[in-house]
Design a protein that fits this description.
The structure is a single chain. The protein contains six helices and five strands; from the N terminus they run βαβααβαβααβ. The protein is an alpha/beta fold. It has a five-stranded parallel β-sheet, with helices on both faces. It is globular, with a radius of gyration of 15 Å. About 40% of the residues are buried. Residues about 60-65 and about 120-130 have low confidence and may be disordered.
């Protein structure tokens, strides 16, 4: 088995997802792999009832999925964490779309051979609205998936 060459990790800015970024950064550094940090977001459109509905449900966590400015800030923070953990070659990308679709798209575009996600899924109404990223990514990915234990 060869070492991983390109690793994709997803983050939504939560502490839990940043733990996955730290682990991915350490792994990418140890393998000499490129690390691509991805954050999915939904564009804000004042006429988009579905997006407004999601914001109503998510309340204080809506920043994690709406608008490119928060997503850009999220990947900047994640970049710092990954670099501190040992990743040398790090790129960041903010992608429009749902979390799983965006991550799988980045994996395809980057020809990645490993996808890293945290184990913390979304529960309750949030999970039904957005889906469980770890479960869906594991089931649908065409490459290896590392699910990092990110909860205490």
């Amino acid at each position: 088995m060869t070492a991983y060459r390109t690793v994709v990790v997803g983050t939504d800015g939560s502490e839990s997802s940043l733990r996955a970024v730290t682990r991915a950064g350490a792994l990418a550094g140890a393998c000499g792999a490129t690390l691509v940090i991805a954050c999915a977001y939904l564009p804000t459109d004042p006429d988009d009832r579905e997006v407004r509905g999601a914001a109503d449900v998510l309340k204080d966590e809506a920043y994690q999925v709406m608008g490119s400015s928060p997503a850009e800030e999220t990947v900047r923070t994640a970049y710092e964490r990954a670099s501190a953990a040992g990743a040398g070659d790090v790129r960041t990308v903010a992608v429009v779309g749902s979390p799983v679709e965006a991550l799988l798209d980045v994996v395809r575009r980057e020809s990645a051979d490993l996808l890293v996600v945290g184990n913390r899924g979304l529960a309750g109404i949030k999970g039904r609205l957005l889906g469980s990223v770890p479960a869906d990514a594991t089931r649908r990915s065409s490459v290896d998936v590392l699910v990092v234990h990110t909860t205490d």
